[in-house]
Amino acid sequence: MLYDVVIVGGSYAGVSAGLQLARARRKVLVVDAGLRRNRFARHSHGFLGQDGRDPADIAHDAQTQLRRYPTVDWLNGEATDASPCADGFAVTLSDARQYLGKRLILATGVVDQLPAIDGLAQQWGVNVFHCPYCHGYELGGGPIGVLATSELAMHHALMLPDWGATILFLNAAFEPDANQLASLKARGVRLERERVTAVGGQGADVTLASGRVVELKGLFTQPRIRMASPLAERLGCVFEEGPMGPFIKVDAQRATSVPGVFACGDAAIAAGNVAIAVGDGARTGGAVHASMMFAT
Ligand SMILES: Cc1cc2nc3c(=O)[nH]c(=O)nc-3n(C[C@H](O)[C@H](O)[C@H](O)COP(=O)(O)OP(=O)(O)OC[C@H]3O[C@@H](n4cnc5c(N)ncnc54)[C@H](O)[C@@H]3O)c2cc1C
Domains of the chain, with CATH numbers? Predict the structure, then answer.
């Protein structure tokens, strides 16, 4: 079966792209491994009309609505390879089944590489976060911790006082210079230089090398990200370097450097969220449709 479009990744960005294409009566296949980036959180914030809902429910409702369209096929599974072929692209699944699409959309998201600190992974999305807009409001004014993984922590540390009393745990990741110290002081940020040995005895509480425990309402950190899927690299897509890690380079129509391959959502954005992924997906769906109608 030759599809108009194969979409790899059936979360917010991929489903949003698929919706535009399904409504254009195009034949679409969505392949999804079901590992959304925010699957660790029970509440999603900041997405219009869905504020505070379980992110799994938001994704489930969107997928259910998309799958009602008769031109949409859905496969739960992992795409392990994609390569150009005479018809467009051949996408191979982990069980070796192969599907063809005239266009390919990568909506595969990213993976957060968490700092290797005892207990932190268990608190990810519960009491430890990366996005103040997503989870800062609920922390009730703090105290809020920022766990530095690099100098980028300055960004979080200078933002978070708007959400509550802020402590920056340097954890030997960097040492602020005189200007940075002045900026932190002006924002009322407290500095903690002692190494962090554990997170989460109670919620977001941080344990320091001396055994001292700092009680926190929430902790923010900036993990490095990596692509959730090697497909873009395998296809030869060009990447850009963002502050947190690489993302797929796309043009204004969300076309990658490989003709016929488009990308959207976190995989193709320096720093995304659900609202941005949904908007980006809608734009990509329209652009992919246009590329098939107006192709020269
Ligand atoms: C802990 C946490 C909490 C967050 N909270 C919020 C919040 O409150 N509000 C907010 O707006 N944003 C929040 N975010 C950010 C949000 O999760 C992302 O911006 C959003 O999920 C991006 O959507 P996406 O569709 O691009 O990627 P994802 O949602 O990550 O989905 C990518 C999909 O592609 C699939 N996939 C990947 N590779 C393959 C493959 N090879 N084959 C098949 N399928 C594949 C994955 O399994 C997954 O289903 C949070 C993130 C984290 C980590």
Answer: 2-112+224-293 (3.50.50.60), 115-221 (3.50.50.60)
